[in-house]
């Protein structure tokens, strides 16, 4: 069994793909646009004018696959109950200079929640929300 993060960018997925390519070296391994859906379901996938929006993309970041879309937001609920927001992606690295570079890249246009620094549990840990609202923890484990 595997679990993959699936990120929703509310129409900004192409921008996010380019951002993660630069910040994390993400490699697109599969990309499907709304116009690629079979003609009989295209209208169900996206409104008119959204044919170039991303229906699904898979990106490889290191050893991890991230899935993303321009489609429905991650907070969408059908029950009217509050949406779940308790998620953060954890980027685990081994080199402090690499951790700093990636942390700073993720922070560009975003918000630093906890500066990258030594803590009681890590020689290098910080928290940032990127420009798309995705929460990240950057860490070098105490004992790799």
Automatic annotation (TrEMBL):
<dbReference type="Pfam" id="PF00903">
    <property type="entry name" value="Glyoxalase"/>
</dbReference>
<dbReference type="InterPro" id="IPR029068">
    <property type="entry name" value="Glyas_Bleomycin-R_OHBP_Dase"/>
</dbReference>
<protein>
    <recommendedName>
        <fullName>Glyoxalase/fosfomycin resistance/dioxygenase domain-containing protein</fullName>
    </recommendedName>
</protein>
<feature type="domain" description="Glyoxalase/fosfomycin resistance/dioxygenase">
    <location>
        <begin position="6"/>
        <end position="138"/>
    </location>
</feature>
<dbReference type="InterPro" id="IPR028973">
    <property type="entry name" value="PhnB-like"/>
</dbReference>
<dbReference type="InterPro" id="IPR004360">
    <property type="entry name" value="Glyas_Fos-R_dOase_dom"/>
</dbReference>
